[in-house]
User: What shape does this take?
Amino acid sequence: MTAAVLYGKEDLRLELVEVPQAAAGELVVRVGAALTCGTDLKVYRRGYHAMMLKPPIPFGHELAGVVEEVGVGVTAFRRGDRVVALNSAPCDVCFFCRHGQQNLCEDLLFNNGAYADYIRIPARIVEKNTLAVPDGVPLEFAALTEPLACVVRGLEESGAQAGDTMVVIGAGPIGLMFMHVAELAGAHVIAVVKREDQVEAARLFGASSVVQVGAVEDVVAATRALTPEGRGADIVIEAVASPSTWEWAVDMVRKGGVVNFFGGPPSGTKVKLDTNRLHYGDITLKASFHHTPATCRTAFELVTSGRFKCAEYITGRAELCDVPEIFARMMNRNGGSRDIKTAVFPEGAPR
Assistant: This one.
């Protein structure tokens, strides 16, 4: 079969590899649709991911497809079932799992290889994080479950409630997801974006106000002016992963508010924060990583219920042979068009 294999920094190759076989408890899934992802782009740019993968390794982790082979002992699925298989599953026995932090599992099992004709689903993921896709839900929509689950957890961890004012810094795929889920939860969303094309996208996905960097003299002041009485936002989500936007986030939140540093800068990155404002403003700083089986199911319900704007979120369609070119192009976005996620169809993009 054909698979995209990551060998290192900006070194992604299409190769012929053996079709996987299902061992006991496992599935082999024929990939119906795999989605491009900001995390995959970050890994492509850096050439590694400290937790998820080390090259050379099959690439991609957002997918849905059809069960091709069922391993001995699997009773929940059968050949021909349409499924979304998440990219990880916790052990549920370590310290962190026992304390309700499955995303920090000491033995978190990751699975990669979505950009391929077939993918093997390990037994633990089959058992804990594989879901049957209802008829009528396109597989490319179902594949949105994984990134959406991370966003759902980030929103839950931030304590978001209806009526809150939320600032989302960044209008990439994750930032737009935060805007949309926050809007669905009843929050008033202010977006801080960089490019002109992101202004329209932010409004489409729920932002009632948009501040474009470069169009205002002081981004922090312009953003705070849009909050009630200019006091700052109840919650600020940082989804860019740069030191400057981390610092903006702290300056945009109100006293007693919450900042969620969702975007992860490279290891060793340092930021400068006003400790006086943090302490006397009683500001909560959080960071959210990954998802849990519970948030995966919440995200899956958002997708399958039709509440999430899946069709608008998937802005490109491609075939498996296009994957290396897609990632090279993603490295050089010029902001000329609204480009969020590309759905890759190994069997050929539907017309």
User: Anything to note?
Assistant: The chain has a mean pLDDT of 94. DSSP finds 13 helices and 18 strands in the chain. The radius of gyration is 20 Å.
